[in-house]
Amino acid sequence: MLVFLILAVVGITGLWIISGHVSSVEFKIGDITADNAGTFARVSGSIQRLSESEDGYFLTMSDSTDSIKAVIWKRSFPHLNLTENQNVEIIGTISLYRGEIEIIADRVEIVG
């Protein structure tokens, strides 16, 4: 039992240390390419199109340079209330889905 407690404390401490060193790269949407897939990124923009399913929000957001699709899973954000034309900042992982660039949200902040 003591071994499990020690391993848990060591694991939590390690995660705490690592989390302090994980940072996102801020991108203008137009600067994101397929080569950025896997990058932990921060993008800001206005929601142009928004659809909702039982599992998540699927949106297109744009800034002055371009637009990008974003996926926000409801299990991570159960109380989020999004509307079109809302300004948001999304921090998440850039990925490719069916050949299109998108960002999978880890953090969402409504701006303004």
Secondary structure elements and their pairing?
Layout: H1 2-19, E1 25-26, E2 40-52, E3 56-62, E4 67-73, E5 87-97, E6 100-111
Parallel strand pairs: 1-2, 4-6
Antiparallel strand pairs: 2-3, 2-5, 3-4, 5-6
Name the descriptors.
6 strands; 112 residues; five-stranded mixed barrel; alpha/beta; 16% helix
Describe this structure in words.
By secondary structure, the chain is of the alpha/beta class. The protein has a single domain (24-111), classed as OB fold (Dihydrolipoamide Acetyltransferase, E2P) (Beta Barrel). 16% of the residues lie in helices and 46% in strands. It has one helix spanning 2-19, and strands at residues 25-26, 40-52, 56-62, 67-73, 87-97, 100-111. The chain has a 5-stranded mixed barrel. The longest helix is centred in the N-terminal third of the chain and has 18 residues, at 2-19. It starts with a helix and ends with a strand.
Distance between the termini: 50 Å
Number of helices: 1
CATH class: Mainly Beta
Low-confidence stretches: none
Q: What level of helicity do the residues show?
A: 10-25%
Radius of gyration over C-alpha positions, nearest whole angstrom: 17 Å
Q: How would you classify the helix and strand content by structural class? A: alpha/beta
Characterize the largest beta sheet: strand count, sense, and whether it forms a barrel. Answer: 5 strands, mixed, barrel
Q: Supply the number of structural domains.
A: 1
Percent range for β-strand residues = over 45%
Concise description?
The chain starts with a helix and ends with a strand. The protein is 16% helix and 46% strand.
